[in-house]
Amino acid sequence: MRLLITKGKRPSLENFRVPFVDQKDNRRLLRLMEKCWRASPTQRPSSLECTKITEKLYQRQKRGINDAVHEVLKKLREQKE
């Protein structure tokens, strides 16, 4: 994978979807990922821009994210027992 990425190869995002994020924010996340993959560093978003975008997404989706994390932790505890 590391060698492919350095040659500009990227995984398909055609069916990419974060389960607990709504469709509109999924598209925003995909656009950010694609910007981060640009070949020229000057065309990529800055760390600050990425942080601002992901923070906005988190604020809109935090209940779903927190619920998903809770479910994962619950399943992990059940597996331990």
Q: What structural class do the secondary elements suggest?
A: mainly alpha
Radius of gyration: 16 Å
Low-confidence stretches are none
The helical percent reads 55-70%
Instruction: Provide the domain count.
Output: 1
Q: Total number of helical segments?
A: 3
Number of strands: 0
Q: How many strands, what sense, and barrel or not for the largest sheet?
A: none
Keywords:
single chain; 3 helices; mainly alpha; 81 residues; 65% helix; extended
Could you please describe the fold and organization of this structure?
The chain has one domain. The model has no long low-confidence stretch (mean pLDDT 86). 65% of the residues lie in helices and 0% in strands. The protein contains three helices and no strands. It is an all-alpha fold and 81 residues long. The longest helix has 34 residues, at 47-80. The chain has helices at 2-6, 23-36, 47-80. Helix 2 (23-36) packs across helix 3.
Outline of the structure:
This protein is mainly alpha-helical and 81 residues long.
Q: How are the elements arranged and paired?
A:
Layout: H1 2-6, H2 23-36, H3 47-80
